[in-house]
Amino acid sequence: MGWSYRLWRRRFQERLGKDADDSELALRVARSYAARLSYFDRDVGAGLIIHGRRMVEDGRYEAALAALDEAVEIGTKHVHRSPIRYAPIIATGLLRKSWVLDAVGRRDEALDAAERAARIFRALVKMRPGHFELPLYSALSCVTTWTQPSEESLATAEEALAVCRRAVRQPGWREVHRAAALHNVATCLRAAGRPGDALPTAEEAVRVYRVLDHADGAEYWPRFEGSLRSLEAILTDLDRYSDAAAVAQEAAEIRARRSSP
């Protein structure tokens, strides 16, 4: 495949990174290559995933789902022959599909797609540690968020937090990932009737969100406020009413500050 393929692929990715019309043109070119040599099917699959994102940006959800379904189909066709090349296409396509399905109100289907993506990403993490932890975290986080908080969902929330802690030095990792994972674990522990166990996790989530809020409150304050409300509820469950009132006051002050012009 040599330098000519690398040059073609770089130009292909540059065109995919532009607008929807460019991504459609790039896909047509990739399909023409794939028609002659199946090696290029992976590029078609990767291009379909990016094109699906472009469709979402344009509000064309059904077109996005069709593109992602085709990407998953391509990955499934070849994964037995080259798992490390095609399993990420399947898993990423399923994860992106879950987001689109959730956006259009098809929560049960979204949850199923996220669970399937998580299973594949788990296997990929074992095959190539240090490369797939973040998408695994994302899939697990979706499963936790879309499942009623309970003892049953706690295991998934704790797995997501563990993965997040391992991914701390990976490109794309952000502190908000840890904060969200901590919040989910605390929520599940409280729902399972374990407020004492939930407390330190909820407090850690609040500490992380507080730092993020100081850095960029416009982006993080709704999550920060939600984390404070969760901590307030846990403290109330533990009959620590004065501490709960102090947390509630901080949440109210944040809302007032962010809502003021």
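the 2nd protein, sequnce then structure:
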Amino acid sequence: MSGPQPLPPSGDTPGPARDEDVWRALVAWRLRRRPFVLATVVASRGYTPRKPGARMLIAEDGATVGTIGGGAIERRIQEEARALLARGGTALIETHLTRELGMCCGGEMSVFLECMTAAPRLFLFGAGYIAKPLAAIAAGCGFDVEVIDARAEWASEARFPTSRVVLRAPEVYARELETAADDFAVIVTHDHALDQQLVQALLPRPLRFIGMIGSLPKYRKFVLRLRARGFPEEQIARLRTPLGADIGAETPEEIAVSVMAEIVAVRRGMPVAPRSTPPRTAAAAPLEPDETEVP
């Protein structure tokens, strides 16, 4: 008799799975940031196909691992799981197998459903004074944080213990980065020219939020350059700067709080005022004379 077969790369199991297969698939799906529902039998009365402790995973695309009993009860749970993935949260499904589903078992089952979605990702480009408290606050708010900077003395695990630190040129990393529609990105580097490169690399990408630390004159200059490079207005409008809620912030820590307030508002679907649209020409948007031009 052959031993247990390894899970396919996707973590899916084609047939009935043991408990350890369910847990292995759960880890694999979490690592792949794959949304799914964990269904657990939490109570049973009378004759039922599975007893408390039986578990099953149901993915967005219909893939499953494990079983909570098969037949009509499993179809019902899969339907409930797909609906739950659309709205999030948890649900308790209590079913009489004969009266409600026409099964001959005659018992009752309670199945608890948990929506398991990946934490939102926040890409922090720059590892300076604002990035340090911002990364800590974002991690505390449930974000998976990546800090990207080419300066080893700034981008270190000692300074960012709750984040993944990427020691690379930010503009190179941004060009290679694969993003998703629920990702967030904030630009907090030490160099305006680098900021410009990052904005140009990130605006066309699927991101829920693109923010940049900077003044209103800096924003106007960036917009004019983006227009000159052919960026459409709908992409330019995605850039949020000056960044942060208006709380009178002055210190790096206070600025980080204000930035995180704006990020949380967007994450939770709260109304956030759009940034003003700069004039169409440089002549109509006078620049501050002490602002250094970015090549």
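The CA atoms of residues 20 and 276 lie 54 Å apart. The chain is about 30% helix and 20% strand.
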